[in-house]
Amino acid sequence: PLEPKQKPRTHHAPYKPRQPKGIQDKNLPRTSAHTTQPVKRVNLTLQDWLTVFSYIDEHPGISQDAIVQHFKTIPNGALIFDQSTLSRKLRDRHKLEARTHEYPNALSSKRVHVVTCPAIDHSLFLWIKHMEGKGEQVTGAMLLAKRAKFEEKFNIPEDERLKGDG
User: Fold this and answer.
1) N or C: which end of the chain has fewer CB within 10 A?
2) What is the largest CA-CA distance in the chain?
3) Region Disordered: which residues (predicted)?
4) Considering Cα of 86, then 87, then 92, then 98, what sign does the dihedral take?
5) pTM of the model
6) Taken in order 78, 83, 88, 92, is the CA torsion positive or negative?
7) Among candidate residues 23, 64, 29, the one with its CA nearest the CA of residue 44
């Protein structure tokens, strides 16, 4: 017979209620800024990169290493990234700035979201806003079902419909 590798628990830790998060304005774009040093690297939002770009514009001739150090040491809202990431983002700066004009909601995103059918994407966006207005929680399964209904309503050919839960 197999014996358990751990002893059974005789007592449980006391319940700790969740601490409320700081009040955030839901109309502002999200940020990846930290008040303390994060344990691991995090991806910055598009809004964060635009903040970095505006700092670079205000300080012409500053080295990329100095930029990285500046943002790493901001007491309230440190942005953690390395020089190679900054170099890559500067190379794609025009694409990132163009994305903000095309998709205003992209400011809170960390990655590019590929939209195959803008009409369905917009319809899902409006539906989510409607559900949030009613105080309803939207789940992944609900999104999949609604996407399928919108694809049918907009007469999207079967071979162009999205498969899976992406």
Assistant:
1) N
2) 71
3) 1-36
4) positive
5) 0.53
6) positive
7) 29
User: Among 90, 128, 96, 89, which Cα is nearest to 112's?
Assistant: 96
- In which residue are the tokens 């002893």 written? 7
pLDDT per residue over 84-93, tens digit each?
999 999 999 9
Task: Name which of 47, 55, 25 is nearest 100 in CA terms.
Answer: 47
d(CA 133, CA 121): 18
Q: How many Å apart are CA 47 and CA 32, to the nearest integer?
A: 9
The two three-digit tokens of residue 39, written as one number: 């344990």
Give the integer Cα–Cα distance in Å for 90 and 78.
Answer: 19
For the chain, what's the residue count? 166
Nearest by Cα to 56 from 28, 97, 98: 97
